[in-house]
Amino acid sequence: MDxxxxxxxxxxxxxxxxxxxxxRRAVFGHAVSSYEEISVLPMELRAELTRSAAIxxxxxxxxxxxxxxxxxxxxxxxxxxxxxxxxxxxxSPRRWTACVSTQVGCAFGCVFCATGRMGFVRDLTAEEIxxxxxFWRRHMLREGLEGGVSNVVYMGMGxxxxxxxxxxxxxxxxxDPRQHGIGARHVSVSTVGIPxxxxxxxxxxxxxxxxxxxxxxxxxxxxxxxxxxxxxxxAELARALERYLGxxxxxxxxxxxxxxxxxxxxxxxxxxxxxxxxLGRPELFHVNLILYNPTEASLRPTSELEAxxxxxxxxxxxLKATLRQSLGADIRGACGQLVSERR
Length: 343
Ligand code: SF4
Prior knowledge:
The chain has 343 residues and is α/β, with parallel strands linked by helices. It is built from twelve helices and twelve strands. Strands 1-2-3-4-7-8-9-10-11-12 form a ten-stranded mixed sheet, with helices on one face. Strand 7, helix 6 and strand 8 form a beta-alpha-beta unit. The structure holds iron/sulfur cluster. Iron/sulfur cluster is lined by residues 106, 108-110, 113, 115-116, 157-159, 192, 213.
């Protein structure tokens, strides 16, 4: 929903600006599915808005629901026929988290990620990003799911900071109380670690959470798992994070997908401890350990027992670390599993 387009329609028809408020309240407050439902609008305006300012610029192809109902994944077709996936998770009874995509495919090619294997197709627009949230809000209403979308994470397909302008606009629209009204502290952006992007993000959105896909704390190993590390090695990432903390002082999440025999050894845990300590403010980093969700790559997940051992080693060294509950793997909607069949 691009309010700017609706505003133009209203202006072109010579109608007063309060009509835009009526549209805004109905679309964002009540998540209506069509302009026909907004009975306070004149018929002529409803018809013109339907023609020129569609509420959603994407249409569901398929929605999968996990057996326990706590994870849902939707394949959404964009106007040019490309498809992206988005996920809705219920990590706790009072929380619904929408995980949104920012690109069709991704150029960064992390070895454990199905999206990376698609290659880059195109950037999403701000509207295509925020419409994924609007789609879930309407889905929840239709399905009688209570609570609304409380959190949004930019952890779907694509690298958010490589599509900065659209991501920045979508963040502004998401936290705008007159639009989606999601609290800035309930929004997180995850990056593979582009230093300039991190610094720009810190300056523009100091209240929004940052997550970094780390997955290894030694350059040689990280370059194998996350090829972006060759362009932006750990020392550069560390400098960007130090500058980030200088501006934001919000806690940074370090994501670490555990891969059996690859990055889950004692020496890997020790390298991670050393990396966080070098950053100077270890209390502001939280390591989020993820049990790897198998994709086509020939990588195996670490067992839960080994993952606990890895976590204990971090905790013993004074780091904050949690083992993330994995939701959505049964519908291929968990971390690293998003991919679109049609490009
Ligand atoms: S993990 Fe993120 S940055 Fe890496 S290939 Fe997948 S979508 Fe791209």
